[in-house]
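JOB MANIFEST
job_type = single_chain_structure
chain_count = 1
residues = 79
[input]
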Amino acid sequence: MQTRRYARVLLGDWRTLALFAAAPVALGALILVRLPEEQLGQPPTGQFRLISHAPIVLFVVVICVTLVGAGAAIRDGCA
């Protein structure tokens, strides 16, 4: 019951729907452009990686997911 009402409200407000669709895409593109490449995979054969950037990449992903979720919660609380 509540899910159906929430879906109707969300579909009726096109700006919020566009924001919910654009925010993860924009944050993902920013992560893809800004953070170092191939840090989550194995290093090439014969190469030793003393310090990995994987924790930084994962931290930024977690922060972005948290921001998108907080934005949805704030928007829901204001409506």
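[summary]
The chain has one domain: 2-35+53-78.
The radius of gyration is 18 Å.
exit_status = 0
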